[in-house]
């Protein structure tokens, strides 16, 4: 199989993740978009590992490390989301303006 | 097309279509459930690409832990079960344009750059638990230990964040 097949798949998943991050209003759904983007990167790593037959298996090992980092990230992010819900009563990103730059004209 | 290629194309189609449903469905909970389908299809892609151990770790951590965490977060933030029309921003066209730009630019670059490289899966070393364990604990020990420190820091951070309320005392 040509190498660009998995690369194209990961590109499409990454773009869908970008759309999810930009277009969704619920904070948990934005996090799902981030997960899609991280998975797209993992597909790239594994595909390059198989294509270049890395003796150190750098691609697969880095994919494992990315999965671990993603798990840590989602745990922290959901703790922050729950904290935001306790303070504001909603997790609608369009209505969370307490960190907005109010000096801008 | 060989059987492996057919399986790969089918898994890719499932992954892309369910990922599109993740970012467009008006049901909150359905979004998390379509994410399960996407991540499972990606685990299948890992299996096709000779990364056996990564595929099972993907099933265990992503499909097992991350999606359950997401469902818990949806539940704890009192997500309504019916369809919600305001889950997506009203002006979604610029977001779709940026995503399309990303897809075209990245896709064109990658396809043009690696057009001639073949992925020879018949001779690839399957990343079984034995092979992966040997590489992780022989060649990648230091990053592995750094990652364990990172996980500990994330654990402590999550606990500290969840205990913030008791110090405020206002709600």
Automatic annotation (TrEMBL), chain A:
Pfam families: Oxidored_q2. NDH-1 is composed of 14 different subunits. Subunits NuoA, H, J, K, L, M, N constitute the membrane sector of the complex. GO terms for biological process: ATP synthesis coupled electron transport. Keywords: Cell membrane, Membrane, NAD, Oxidoreductase, Quinone, Translocase, Transmembrane, Transmembrane helix, Transport. NDH-1 shuttles electrons from NADH, via FMN and iron-sulfur (Fe-S) centers, to quinones in the respiratory chain. The immediate electron acceptor for the enzyme in this species is believed to be a menaquinone. Couples the redox reaction to proton translocation (for every two electrons transferred, four hydrogen ions are translocated across the cytoplasmic membrane), and thus conserves the redox energy in a proton gradient. This is NADH-quinone oxidoreductase subunit K. It catalyses: a quinone + NADH + 5 H(+)(in) = a quinol + NAD(+) + 4 H(+)(out). InterPro entries: NADH_UbQ_OxRdtase_chain4L/K, NUOK/Mnh_C1-like. GO terms for cellular component: NADH dehydrogenase complex; plasma membrane. It comes from Nocardioides iriomotensis.
TrEMBL record, chain B:
Keywords: Cell membrane, Membrane, NAD, Quinone, Transmembrane, Transmembrane helix. It is found in: Cell membrane. Belongs to the complex I subunit 6 family. Its EC number is 7.1.1.-. Its main location: membrane. One of its GO terms (molecular function) is quinone binding. The chain crosses the membrane at residues 6-25, 32-53, 59-80, 92-114, 140-161. NDH-1 shuttles electrons from NADH, via FMN and iron-sulfur (Fe-S) centers, to quinones in the respiratory chain. Couples the redox reaction to proton translocation (for every two electrons transferred, four hydrogen ions are translocated across the cytoplasmic membrane), and thus conserves the redox energy in a proton gradient. It is a multi-pass membrane protein. It comes from Nocardioides iriomotensis. InterPro entries: NADH_UbQ/plastoQ_OxRdtase_su6, Nuo/plastoQ_OxRdtase_6_NuoJ. This is NADH-quinone oxidoreductase subunit J. GO terms for cellular component: plasma membrane. Pfam families: Oxidored_q3. It catalyses: a quinone + NADH + 5 H(+)(in) = a quinol + NAD(+) + 4 H(+)(out).
